[in-house]
Amino acid sequence: MEFNELDSLRDAIKATPNNVPLRKLYINALTKAERYEEAAIEIKEALRLAPNETSLKIWLATVYHELNKTSLGLVVIEEVVSNSSASGNAWFIYAKLLLQAKQVGDAKDAYEKALIINPELKDNFLESDINLKLQQNNSPEPEKLVLGNAAFSGQDDDEANSIDIERPKITFNDVGGMDKLKEEIRMKIIAPLEHPEIYKAYGKKIGGGILMYGPPGCGKTHLARATAGEVNANFLSVGINDILDMYIGNSERNLHAIFQKARQMKPCVLFFDEVDALGASRTDMRNFSGRHVINQFLSELDGVEYDNEGVLILAATNAPWHLDSAFRRPGRFDRIIFVPPPDDTARAAILNIKLKDKPVKEIRFDKLMKRTTDFSGADLEAVIDIAIESKLEESMRKGMPMPIETDDLVNAAKKHRPTTKEWFQAAKNYALFANEAGLYDDILKYLKL
Fold this sequence. Notes:
This protein has helices at 3-15, 20-32, 36-49, 54-66, 70-81, 88-100, 104-117, 124-136, 150-153, 157-160, 179-194, 196-201, 220-230, 250-264, 288-302, 344-355, 365-369, 377-398, 406-415, 420-433, 441-447; strands at residues 165-166, 208-213, 234-238, 268-272, 311-317, 333-338. With 449 residues, it is an alpha/beta fold. Among the domains are: 165-338, Rossmann fold (3-Layer(aba) Sandwich); 344-417, Helicase, Ruva Protein, domain 3 (Orthogonal Bundle). The chain has a 6-stranded mixed sheet, with helices on both faces. The longest helix is centred in the C-terminal third of the chain and has 22 residues, at 377-398.
């Protein structure tokens, strides 16, 4: 809110000093402007006029929390929660003040009561902080709060969790081709987990980051999930909707909560899809809140305040040229790997996997490969779908599933244009004219330029 608007509200209060609703508007404006000292004074004055208004007391406790006046905040809010009809909001701010006072067990209990009363108060950031403090208190196997606990929300786990935790069943055997990329991941991620003593002898941490880039549909997400399956690790797939929030500060909190969740469940593969949407170059930004998110992301990757040992971070992007250069610093995404469209061997392997359990005659892959140059994994799946559609009418007419043949796939490939061509058209310009550091040499090599 602009200062002249605050001034207008202040003048209006001077004209009608006993108008409590007007004072609330002014307090709300001061709070949004983060002028907490002034807000506290105004709340006290409003309480003088309406001493029994509970919402004002909760508001005052919230402001004291922001000012780190923990003892004063606890005095105010404890009076509120002593009432059996206390709201979920009262218990929620009580939990935050208790955590601020390092009374972690009591904070956990207060937060649970808040969620029982109002499940919509679920706060990933607060939960992760409580869990972390519980772990640091040396208590044997402390009980953890689970993000989106169904006991609190009354929903199934899948509905309540904002981010699903997976234990993927697929492994590298389910990924066609990509042998170079698999080897990079084996050395960076899998080998340290299998031989921790060797890596620790050299002072190498177990964890780190790999950034995969390339045209869409070439299996970056599939490979990330297979990596988790290869090491039997938890898998968290994060999209921009899981992080970005319209309110200032919430995006950073969401990002921190996600990293905390991964740290609590290590070994864990944390996968960021379309990472350039979260880590766009700060030099191109006019929005300061976007810069704060990037700074938070870099801080979480560095693992200075919190240990990232055992957290394996993979990220994928179709536009690496839009990613802030700070992400490429050693210790963050220090392996940057080009994921090209699959070669002949890989395309044959992908088709074999995709055609598994379908009615198929023996396929002449040599004939099919000539028609699918530059096709991505997603393109090959589209080819299979087109071929199946061509067989459905015949199958229904004959009353039995008719097998897919080589010619069906060849004809389907003729109807589908590879989606990678448009990406390479844009990537070629960056590789030729914005490649001082040699980052896009693999693109030039693939295009034989």
